[in-house]
Prior knowledge:
- With 84 residues, this protein is α+β, with helices and mostly antiparallel strands.
- The protein has a single domain (3-83), classed as 2-Layer Sandwich (Alpha-Beta Plaits), CATH 3.30.70.20.
- Helices cover 18% and strands 20% of the residues.
- The protein has two helices and four strands.
- It has helices at 17-21, 64-73; strands at 3-8, 26-28, 33-35, 79-83.
- The strands form two sheets. A two-stranded antiparallel sheet has the order 1-4. A two-stranded antiparallel ribbon has the order 2-3.
- The longest helix is centred in the C-terminal third of the chain and has 10 residues, at 64-73.
- It is globular.
- The structure holds iron/sulfur cluster.
- Iron/sulfur cluster is lined by residues 8, 12-18, 26, 28, 33, 74-76, 78-79.
Amino acid sequence: MAITSVWIEEGCIVCNACEAECPDVFHVTDTTCTIRDGVRQDGVESENRDEKAELNTDLQTSLEDSIIAAAAGCPVEVIKYNKI
Ligand code: SF4
């Protein structure tokens, strides 16, 4: 199993829980949460809501558990992902 892409829907309350759980992927700013450029195939940092850029292939399995844990821990359930 693998997570191919992860993104942030509208409504982030910048609680920092996801970055604490999975700092390799999530970056909480003053106003929202972004998916770090270093883990994305397009090399862009953003919420990835529209692009749904894929994670780097070598990270799709290794980061799966921590991304799922971060999504489960998000109090407003705005972390979404595609899983194969
Ligand atoms: S856990 Fe959810 S609400 Fe909290 S910073 Fe991350 S995306 Fe935003």
